[in-house]
Amino acid sequence: MSQTPAIDSGEPAAQAHMRFDDNTLLAMLFGEHDRHIAQLEHSLGVMIASRGNELEISGPSESVDVAQAVLSELYNRLKRGEAVDRGEIDAAIRMASARGKDGKSKTPSRVDPIQTRKRPVAPRSPRQAAYIDAMREHELVFGLGPAGTGKTYIAVAVAVSMFLSGQVDRIILSRPAVEAGERLGFLPGDIKDKVDPYLRPLYDALNDMMPTDSVLKRLESGEIEIAPLAFMRGRTLSNAIVILDEAQNTTPVQMKMFLTRLGEYSRMVVTGDLSQVDLPTGARSGLAEAVDTLAGMKGAAFIRFSNDDVVRNPLVTRIVRAYEKREKEASSAQRGERK
Q1: DSSP state of 32
Q2: What is the DSSP string of 176-198?
């Protein structure tokens, strides 16, 4: 068992006792060489000691409460036959910490997992929970923030769930075909061959939610459509859930065109990162203009993710923060020069 010392946070020390009734599940909860317990101790600044099927948790009061909530949630996951890994532990810590800090928060503390054909998809941060809730309640949702926060993945999962449950008849996934700072030159093949590289992340997310043969069948029938943004012009999209990914690379004209495609019994999700605009220098992002124009509009919801919501490899979070710091320093230096 790891013996990471509790962090001195100034909070009163506390202890808690937990007892579990299934030693087999308890071994899975601990992980190989107690690595899951070590992760909890390191993340929360607590100490966890075990004796048989009982645990003693000690450390700052709030951290002990969070650790108890996390261990209970993870144990219940194992009882349901679901896996527990590093990512799930991190997600449980995020969710339990948010509930502990602000019991009156409007962010949903519990959102039912999204049911897809392959597996359920559960939120891994409070903002992901709010995002899922917004997509279920609003006709138009903007998911804004850095890479790795699950904006596209969660949106595709909700789309697949709505399609499988019969809430919508079609799934339409779109992206602007903009090169990310590169000049790819001439691409061989037909129109599908030319645009598929831009749309590959959407195919990847879709294949995570449904068997490949089912995806291919739905693509052939038109029940699922993956197309570049230019193909949306002149259409009215009814009885569908429509996702526009990488929307920071739209122009204002393109964004207005897309938003006005919304038909009856449809929902739209627009995702993007305004810190990664690949439009020509000086060009205004259609996503930025839409956020300014539609703020506060009835029927629209805006979920803003931050680098604290990055759910990929922990190194990704540190990378995002390092770039964010560098950009802020460069911006401050430019302001100083102008003065």
Answers
A1: G
A2: ----SS-------SSHHHHHHHH
pLDDT at 9 over 50: no
Let me know if domain 13-101 sits in CATH 3.30.1370.10: yes
Percent of the chain scoring above 70 in pLDDT = 82
pTM assigned to the model? 0.73
Q: In this structure, what are the phi and psi dihedrals at residue 35, rounded to the nearest 5 degrees?
A: -70, -30
Q: Tokens in use for 179?
A: 């090169």
Count of positions (residues) in the chain: 339
Q: Report the side by side order of strands in the sheet with 47-51.
A: 13-19, 54-60, 47-51
Q: Answer whether residue 315 shows pLDDT above 80.
A: no
pLDDT digits (tens, 9 = 90+) for 263-282: 999 999 999 999 889 888 88
- The pair of structure tokens assigned to 259 is 């938003």
Q: Is the pLDDT of residue 122 over 70?
A: yes
pLDDT: which is higher, 132 or 88: 132
- In the beta sheet, which residues pair with residue 49? 56
Structure tokens that stand for 323 in this block = 């770039």
- CA dist list (Å): 120 to 107, 152, 219, 252: 21, 16, 22, 36
Q: Where in the chain is the domain with CATH 3.40.50.300?
A: 114-305
Q: Return the pLDDT at 12.
A: 58
- Residues forming CATH 3.30.1370.10 domain(s) in the chain: 13-101
Fold of 114-305: Rossmann fold (3.40.50)
Alpha helices per DSSP H over the chain: 23-30, 35-44, 61-79, 86-101, 126-137, 151-164, 191-209, 212-221, 252-259, 286-294, 314-338
- Rounded to an integer, what distance in angstroms lies between the CA atom of residue 105 and that of residue 233? 40
For residue 189, name the pLDDT band (cuts at 50, 70, 90): low
